[in-house]
Amino acid sequence: MDRLLHAVFEPGFFSSGPVHVALAVGGVVALVSGIVGSFAVVRGQSYAGHALADISVTGGSASFLVGISPLWGFVGVGVLAAGVMDMIGIQRPRGRDLATGVVRGAGLGLAALFLYWDTTHSNVTGATITILFGSLFTVSSSLLPAIVALSVAAVAIVAVLYRPLLLSTVAADLAAARGVSVRLVGLACLAAIALAVSLSAMTIGTILSTALLIGPAAIGLRLSSRPGLAMAWSALAGLAATWLGVLLAYDSFYWPPSRHGWPVSFFVVTLIFLGYVAVQGITTRVRRA
Amino acid sequence: MFTGFMTNAWLVGTIVAIVAGVVGFFIVLRGQAFVADAVPQGAFAGAAGASLLGINTLIGLAVAALLGALGIGWLGRRGRRDVATALALVVLLGLGALFLSFSTEYAPEIYALLFGEVLGVSANEVLPIAVLAVVSVAAIAALYRPLLLSSVMPELAEARGIRPARVETLFLVVVALATSMALPVVGALLIFSLMIGPPAAARSVTSKPLPALVLSAVIAVVVVWASIVAAYDTNWPVGFFVGAFGALCYAAGRVWAALRGRRPARPGGWRDTGEQGVPAANVRV
Amino acid sequence: MKRRPEALRGAAPRGGGADAGPVLDVDGVSLWLSGRKVLDDVSFSLAPGEFAGLIGSNGAGKTTLLRVILGLQAPSAGTVRVAGQPRTRRGSLIGYVPQKILLDPDMPLRARDLVGLGLDGQRLGIPLPSARRRHQVDEMLQAVGAARFADTRVGLLSGGEQQRVLIAHALISRPRLLLLDEPLANLDIASEQDVVELLGQVARQQQVAVLISAHDMNPLLPVMDRIVYMAAGRAASGTTAEVVRPEVLSDLYGQHVDVIRVHNRILVVAAARGEGLDVPSPAPVLHEGA
């Protein structure tokens, strides 16, 4: 029995400091992404979510230049970009993805510029990799309180707007007729998404940010036709994938070829992908009689 | 600026721009901006893997681009299109992260692949790029009518015996090819700016397909030329200028359309997307 | 004909009992959009329990008028009052059934969830599970004949099923006025009759004023108390006998039209040359019955 446990959990897993932080931060981020992501997916804003993650990277790289904490660079620019997208009209179906792509292109162009200035002016090598892929094991634990607070804020937005958001997603005219400000609700939702993805982009990288926003949500949507339950499944799936990914990454420390571990992002993404394909294969879009 | 190694840059840049404009026209028409964004990013992972194994980067690029594009098509038929695109993208990126972790001395090349290094294109890369370009444009020319019809009126296309799924797959392959070709020049993260901004601007000016297609390529070429000049002068990454000028094109197109009181035709076709704005392409019943 | 349970009977609508004023009062409403006069001095009113058909072909301005009444679009001139209240306080007084809603099969919202949102969809926060709420929803679903698919996702429902759910959603908050936008457009004849009958009952028993837009008045003839006939942004309102007459309609259309009654159906036909009935030549039909 001991040997089995040892095989699964490499020694030191439960006592390792970085692992604790990774589990905590990863867990929080996964939960938030799962909850907020459900709305992103049904509102057809998956691309927007992905774009916001990358745009917040621009904010992160700019923060080096200006000297503010990366957290506010990521979050501030992310939410700002959400506002810009809304202004361009990302809530309207016509040309929505187009607008997203253009904003993203411009934002990434800026990121390119900032990173170029970063590396030539301040010699921060490897900054590119860190910013783009993030690393769960190197997040500073001092950021944890701020991350939790902002995550709570993102979930709070969605919780408070729960009913108007559902209604305006399903039937905007119905919601408007009842006095719901569809535009405002949509903007707030996009801001919550921006908050969630910028937090995750900063801590776990843009790859995982997108993956955790969309994959678990898609899984949850398939597993339940009730809004609350779908979001719960989504959060759970994201959490499970993240924690399992952390475990596997830790265990992989001595694996070939480089003997310093495979990246967490690879494991988490693969788990999410497998989960999605499995759920797709098992369930189908049938009506219950 | 016009001699020596720069000739390669001008040549390749122009070729890339033409292809991007042509393919991008259909990307915008079909409302598949996300796909145009995702395939290059996924291809980047292939490039990382290829260089690790010592294979020509371009081949790794192409393979990954194809895998990504076809993966999007396959997953998209079983679920939501945007979810499929996102997942295919992150899986490829995850693989890319994995490959990168195997070797540590890669940072500068990554930057180039991500953001573009047009000034670093070597003479022996021009030929493969040109070949891929010709193949891509020829494919689009061959697919022109079925592609146009199935993008704009899928039900009508089906009635005429065209299979939208088949056309879609072929188109995705072309996108993969165009991507692989353009990546070394403009970089993974910004190739799609070329495929989106110029065509969007072209469509704001005219809604007739063939003129819009040509105009789209022309605008893309102008954008690339301007970006090369600017990058040469300031030493800033060319990708920055492509992104910025692409956005400017898009903005100019919208302003133009607003001034003339006309709105560009809906991407994705005549199907009703509903007030809530789920793009029709994402709904699979 | 199934018996409709008490959900549709009894309890008087909110806002007091039988009060004097009309539930809906549209007065001189005009609207310009992009330089076109979309609505031209439209006036009519509805009393509680009255069933009115808003009839006109596509482009006549029906949907626009509905949007103005709902408060989604401000008129350029004229006023709309619902139970005496101006636009901003209208929300809870009107039940609205749009033509169709999101068809996304992934949307995690069951029929019963959507109906539940009819009770409190505009309120902030997450609803606490409540037996009473669930009971109300169940009753309403039963009343409209939607209990069968109460737990199915709204995106998977057929057109007719979605309709019933939307009607339940609109009725559950006990509105004074019920607006329906082309509800019969996608239904087969049997469903059509069912829906019309259901709505007629609702109007009578709950004293709800019903305004239903359609391009064909014939399915509504059995239950319609009055008709609001629209053409090119202008409207004529009154009983069917008053309005559906050649003089009135010709004036409305701005060209000569004829009204033909066949069995119990009414056909409105434009003359080929604009001078009286000339049946042998193919007459461009503006309006035809079932």
Concise structural overview:
Chain A is mostly helical. Chain A is 78% helix and 0% strand.
Any overview of this molecule?
The complex is a heterotrimer of chains A (289), B (285) and C (290). Chain A has one domain: Orthogonal Bundle (ABC transporter involved in vitamin B12 uptake, BtuC). Chain A is 78% helix and 0% strand. Chain A has helices at residues 2-8, 17-42, 46-66, 70-88, 96-122, 127-133, 144-160, 162-170, 172-177, 182-223, 227-251, 264-282. In chain A, helix 2 packs parallel to helix 7 and helix 7 (144-160) packs across helix 10. Chain B has helices spanning 5-29, 33-53, 57-78, 81-102, 107-115, 123-152, 154-159, 164-186, 191-205, 209-234, 238-259. In chain B, helix 1 (5-29) packs parallel to helix 6 (123-152), helix 2 (33-53) packs across helix 3 (57-78) and helix 9 crosses helix 10. The longest helix of chain B is centred in the middle third of the chain and has 30 residues, at 123-152. Chain C has helices at residues 62-70, 111-120, 131-144, 159-171, 189-206, 240-243, 246-253; strands spanning 24-33, 36-46, 51-55, 77-82, 94-97, 177-181, 209-214, 226-231, 234-238, 257-262, 265-270. Chain C folds into two domains: 6-240, Rossmann fold (3-Layer(aba) Sandwich), CATH 3.40.50; 245-290, no CATH class. Chain C is globular, with a radius of gyration of 20 Å. The longest helix of chain C has 18 residues, at 189-206. At the A-B interface, helix 3, helix 5, helix 6, helix 8 and helix 10 of A face helix 2, helix 4, helix 5, helix 9 and helix 11 of B.
